[in-house]
């Protein structure tokens, strides 16, 4: 996929201003999910990632549009093997039901970027009528096999023309870690507004820019992500596009995933003025590039200091792939394991580290296991200690290296 088309944007994805200031630069980075075979090594897509902040509305964004059509058709990322993720989905569905639909029979729910359908399954068990929209052929095929009706397409102004009449308008729309993959978020919000019933709910979960900044989670700056929002800029975006924020506190922090900005909003009849301290937002992001470089150096130094040990990385999702791709000392990592690898005999893009299932840890034992999927740290440690006899002192969370020692 090395011949992917990219185009640099000239105006803000949120407000249309041409006042964009680049604040983050990551050189020659891959797609998070473009795993390659041995005969494809060196042919994967690599390109710079540049993140800008708008000096008009303070929203952070990727300044490149990347042609993702073919990429998402073959996209296979799923969290179905994670007990914590499935528990989160059940909790989210139960809270939405009890807080907003306790007196409504069979409310309708549409999910944008519905993947293999686990979140919709949680709603369906509670009596919701559900439908998914998912561009990946493989993921939507699986969802349909589980009796979660899923359209294999991108969500746009034409979506309502191809769904069953009962879903031409809906009571609620949920989108989890998908909204930030949308290059034209204002257009999508307008389309969502059209198909929501009066007082319909919109539930959005994205990565939280505030946490990215605090933790130096540069791995979440990806070609696949176009916008990066915190509570303040999310409120601005929703208010400007005829939605009122109901709450950012639907779930407790302990119930959320590793980096989660979760908002519930209600369809409104008009836009509202929401002030953002633009200068403060720019100030917060201005120094982030330097902090990111410090984080990369801390990880590289740790790998160098521990190179006499057999180091294995856990996590072939975006955090693992993108963090490792930025490192100079990734060759000190022996291999990557994941509970749900994309396929057999694959290698990570750019680093070219082999990727295996977790059984590899029994066959080729590690001295130290560096966990990139830190949101599932306890779950991972518990499984690997019980299954393969590892001890807790052999594990380290990447979060310990990303954050400054005095954070």
Nutshell version of this structure?
30% of the residues lie in helices and 23% in strands. The chain is of the alpha/beta class and 407 residues long.
Question: Strands, helices and their partners?
Answer:
Layout: E1 6-8, E2 20-29, E3 47-54, E4 60-62, E5 64-66, H1 69-73, H2 83-100, E6 108-112, H3 118-125, E7 129-133, H4 137-145, E8 150-151, E9 170-176, H5 185-195, E10 196-206, H6 209-215, E11 227-228, H7 231-240, E12 243-247, E13 261-267, H8 278-286, H9 288-305, E14 311-314, H10 318-325, E15 333-337, E16 346-347, E17 354-356, H11 360-363, E18 368-371, H12 377-388, E19 395-397, H13 398-402
Parallel strand pairs: 6-7, 6-9, 7-8, 9-10, 14-15, 14-18, 15-17, 18-19
Antiparallel strand pairs: 1-5, 2-3, 3-4, 4-11, 10-13, 12-13, 16-17
Structural summary, described in words:
- There is one protein chain.
- The chain has a domain at 289-402: Rossmann fold.
- Helix 2 (83-100) packs across helix 3.
- It contains 13 helices and 19 strands.
- Strand 16 and strand 17 form a beta hairpin.
- It has 407 residues and is α/β, with parallel strands linked by helices.
- The strands form four sheets. It has a seven-stranded mixed sheet, with helices on both faces. A six-stranded mixed sheet has the order 16-17-15-14-18-19.
- It has helices spanning 69-73, 83-100, 118-125, 137-145, 185-195, 209-215, 231-240, 278-286, 288-305, 318-325, 360-363, 377-388, 398-402, and strands at residues 6-8, 20-29, 47-54, 60-62, 64-66, 108-112, 129-133, 150-151, 170-176, 196-206, 227-228, 243-247, 261-267, 311-314, 333-337, 346-347, 354-356, 368-371, 395-397.
């Amino acid at each position: 996929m090395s011949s992917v088309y990219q185009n640099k944007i000239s105006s803000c994805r949120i407000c249309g201003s041409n006042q964009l200031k680049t604040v983050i630069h990551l050189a020659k980075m891959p797609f998070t999910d473009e795993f390659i075979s041995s005969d494809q090594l060196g042919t994967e897509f690599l390109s710079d990632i540049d993140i800008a902040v708008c000096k008009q509305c303070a929203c952070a964004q990727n300044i490149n549009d990347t042609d993702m059509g073919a990429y998402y058709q073959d996209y296979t990322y799923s969290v179905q093997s994670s007990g914590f993720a499935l528990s989160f989905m059940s909790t989210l569905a139960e809270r939405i039901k009890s807080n907003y639909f306790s007196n409504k029979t069979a409310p309708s729910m549409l999910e944008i970027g519905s993947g293999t359908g686990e979140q919709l399954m949680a709603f369906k068990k509670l009596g919701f009528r559900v439908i998914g929209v998912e561009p990946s052929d493989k993921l939507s095929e699986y969802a349909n096999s589980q009796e979660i009706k899923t359209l294999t397409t991108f969500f746009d102004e034409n979506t309502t023309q191809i769904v069953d009449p009962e879903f031409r308008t809906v009571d609620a729309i949920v989108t989890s870690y998908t909204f930030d993959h949308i290059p034209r978020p204002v257009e999508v919000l307008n389309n969502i507004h059209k198909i929501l019933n009066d007082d319909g709910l919109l539930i959005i979960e994205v990565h939280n820019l505030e946490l990215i900044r605090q933790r130096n989670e540069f791995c979440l700056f990806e070609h696949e992500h176009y916008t990066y929002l915190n509570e303040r800029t999310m409120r601005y975006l929703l208010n400007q596009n005829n939605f009122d924020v109901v709450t950012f506190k639907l779930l407790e922090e302990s119930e959320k995933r590793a980096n989660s900005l979760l908002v519930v909003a209600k369809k409104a009849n008009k836009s509202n003025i929401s002030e953002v301290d633009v200068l403060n937002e720019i100030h917060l992001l201005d120094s982030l590039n330097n902090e990111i470089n410090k984080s990369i150096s801390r990880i590289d130094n740790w790998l160098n200091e521990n190179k006499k040990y057999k180091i294995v990385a856990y996590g072939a999702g975006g955090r693992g792939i993108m963090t490792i791709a930025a490192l100079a000392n990734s060759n000190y990592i022996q291999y990557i394991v994941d509970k749900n690898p994309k396929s057999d005999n694959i290698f990570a893009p750019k680093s070219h580290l082999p990727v295996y299932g977790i059984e590899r840890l029994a066959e080729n034992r590690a001295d130290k296991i560096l966990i990139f999927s830190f949101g599932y740290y306890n779950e991972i440690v518990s499984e690997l200690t019980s299954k393969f006899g590892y001890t807790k002192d052999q594990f380290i969370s990447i979060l310990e290296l990303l954050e400054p020692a005095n954070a």
